[in-house]
TrEMBL record:
One of its GO terms (biological process) is phosphoenolpyruvate-dependent sugar phosphotransferase system. GO terms for molecular function: kinase activity; metal ion binding; phosphoenolpyruvate-protein phosphotransferase activity. It comes from Acetivibrio mesophilus. InterPro entries: PEP-util_enz_mobile_dom, PEP-utilizing_PTS_enzyme, PEP_util_C, Phosphohistidine_dom_sf, PTS_EI-like, PTS_EIN, PtsI_HPr-bd_sf, Pyrv/PenolPyrv_kinase-like_dom. This is Phosphoenolpyruvate-protein phosphotransferase. It is found in: Cytoplasm. Residues 161-234 form the PEP-utilising enzyme mobile domain. Its cofactor is Mg(2+). Keywords: Cytoplasm, Kinase, Magnesium, Metal-binding, Phosphotransferase system, Pyruvate, Sugar transport, Transferase, Transport. It catalyses: L-histidyl-[protein] + phosphoenolpyruvate = N(pros)-phospho-L-histidyl-[protein] + pyruvate.
Length: 584
């Protein structure tokens, strides 16, 4: 069988093996004939009936996904409801029927296309991705004008099972939710699954690997062929070689546990801490983007929550949740985790992360500040969030962390805000507020340069390998030019060890979070350089915990030494791959 490699845009991390299943949607036919005046009322009636049918359809779908999607993700359906309930919008469609004598389907198509053209000119990537939601609304309305007959997608989705990698022309939030419900191995879309789409949010939250931007016409002939999807690298390999399948099985690729199954799988840990084969304790923490992810992770025997991505909690709100709403979310996590640590990171907004509630304007995203810098420029939002976190800290071992720090001035400024909020809440409550540990992310090249000064100001650090890798390799010519996103680069591993060594010198805890903590090959090195705490998505906890129990620390130290001394990325990958296979 012909082996074929397809590359697209990484959307949702993780890997999976399954058979390719093609969903190729047929084009909607629009009747462009002009109607007689006598037909106008009938066409308006058709429009109103279609609106009612689509409303019912969306409400039924929304109810059907309760328990599958989190509260935040279910707000995605509000976008559909708001469009369908927008009287001004539908008056425009009616006017096209009355004045231009369009049929209802043509009027819908024309009106929504006008809005899509306007949105497409925006510089805000989050707003631009609403194009696919509008397209979906248009298709559903037009389908319901013709009697609500099931389209080809509806029929094909019923045939899908959990052993397939689904390839689709245009992914919509509702199809994404349906595929999540089916627990497919992965999703590949030609369009509609960009990072900011509602569809991609659903797939990331439910732990399903996904890639966007691969032409379906090129994959169509491979229907029902075996394939590997790597959502982190944005690669789909059809008819993989035996070696590639071995690499997948033995850890060169990650095979995440489906989050929806996690409630039944915590038995692996049986209340026992995770230790290496020679008895060295390793802390396993989770990164969460929603309350749903937290509850999925709770039963896995985790040591705590290493990262609450608060920006993800805001993504479907029209405006930033107020202090009360944030407090309820944070305190719920603090109470439910039963005294285990919870690190809540303030919103990491800007750059490539633009939740809809946070008021990013249409300026170029590449020029917008990100992380703590943006938060300090929007101090009112930051103070609201800090107040909510500090109030929630009364219910557990809650810490606060700040993203994308690159100066001591930033840390001192946020510490000053924390002190002011502490004094204010103490006066209000009439008793001293519980102290809160303060940490920061080490994820910029500048933060690495000043790490000693940072460690003097904070209680702990979390090393964010994703962003740090990009910046370190951007500045260092020793990094591979063929594979720009590999954290197994020797120069990057040396940088990590430097950060960990400095934390050990200062007697400050240092955890590693991000994709690196989910890769067994990288975990060997992390253990070997002295990392004692790893934080990752819930889907990876059990596989990584099981793997750690097979590793001896002295062997990991030797493997880490060889990796850092490696002459090339490929040499390191080959060495670590063989290391893992020899112990399986």
């Amino acid at each position: 069988m012909e082996r074929k490699n397809f590359e697209g845009e990484p959307v949702s991390t993780g890997t999976g093996v399954g058979k390719v299943f093609i969903i190729k949607e047929s084009d909607i036919e629009i009747n462009e004939d002009i109607i007689d005046e006598s037909e106008v009322e009938a066409q308006i009636t058709n429009l109103e009936v279609a609106i009612c049918r689509t409303f019912i359809e969306i409400y039924d779908l929304n109810d059907g996904f309760r328990g599958i999607l989190s509260e935040e993700e279910n707000r995605i359906f509000d976008f559909y409801k708001e469009i369908l309930d927008d009287r001004t919008f539908f008056e425009e469609i009616k006017n096209l029927i009355k004045n231009e004598r369009y049929r209802a389907d043509m009027a819908i198509h024309t009106c929504i296309k006008k809005y899509i053209d306007e949105i497409s000119e925006s510089n805000n990537e989050y707003i631009k991705q609403r194009v696919f939601d509008l397209n979906d609304v248009a298709k559903r309305l037009i389908k319901n004008i013709s009697g609500g007959i099931s389209d080809e997608n509806d029929i094909k989705i019923k045939e899908i099972n959990s052993e397939q990698i689904v390839v689709i022309k245009e992914l919509t939030p509702i199809i994404a939710a349906s595929l999540a419900k089916k627990e497919v191995k992965g999703v590949v879309a030609e369009e509609g699954a960009g990072y900011f789409t509602h569809a991609s949010i659903i797939l990331r939250s439910t732990g399903i690997p996904a890639i966007n931007g691969i032409c379906i016409d090129e994959i169509e002939k491979f229907h029902d062929n075996p394939a590997i999807i790597d959502g982190e690298k944005g690669i789909l390999i059809v008819n993989p070689t035996e070696r590639e399948m071995d690499d997948f099985k033995f850890g060169s690729s990650r095979k995440p546990l489906c989050i929806k199954d996690s409630k039944n799988s915590g038995i692996l840990f049986e209340g026992r801490p995770v230790e290496t084969a020679d008895g060295h304790r390793v802390g396993l923490f989770v990164n969460i983007s929603s309350v749903k992810e937290f509850f999925a992770a709770k039963s896995l025997g985790i040591d705590g929550v290493g990262l609450v991505r608060t920006e993800s909690l805001f993504i479907n709100y029209k405006k930033i949740p107020d202090e009360k709403r944030q407090y309820l979310i944070y305190s719920k996590i603090a109470k439910e985790i039963s005294g285990k640590p919870v690190v809540i990171r303030t919103a990491d907004i800007g750059g490539d992360k633009v939740p809809g509630a946070l008021g990013i304007n249409d300026q170029s995203l590449s020029r917008s500040p990100r992380g703590i810098k943006r938060s300090l420029e929007h101090k009112k939002e930051l103070i609201t969030q800090i107040r909510a976190i500090m109030r929630a800290a009364e219910f557990g071992e809650v810490s606060i962390s700040f993203p994308m720090v690159d100066s001591i001035k930033q840390i001192k400024e946020v510490k000053s805000i924390i002190e002011e909020v502490s004094v204010e809440l103490t006066e209000k409550n009439g008793q001293p507020l519980k102290s809160i540990r303060i940490g920061t992310m080490i994820e910029t090249a500048e933060s690495v340069k000043i790490i000693e000064e940072i460690l003097n100001e904070v209680d702990f650090i979390s090393i964010g390998t994703n962003d740090m890798l990009h910046q370190i390799c951007e500045q260092n010519r020793k990094c591979s030019t063929l594979e720009m996103r590999s954290y197994l680069e020797p120069v990057f591993l040396q940088t990590l060890k430097y950060c960990v060594d400095k934390a050990i010198e200062k007697n400050k805890p240092a955890s590693v979070c991000g994709e690196m903590a989910t890769d067994p090959m990288a975990v060997i090195v992390l253990l070997g350089i002295g990392v004692k705490d790893l934080s990752m998505g819930p889907a990876y906890i059990e596989d990584i915990g099981r793997f750690i129990r097979t590793v001896k620390l002295d062997e990991a130290k030797e493997a880490a030494r060889r990796a850092m001394e490696g002459r090339s990325l490929q040499e390191v990958k080959d060495m670590l791959s063989e290391w893992i296979k020899s112990r399986m």
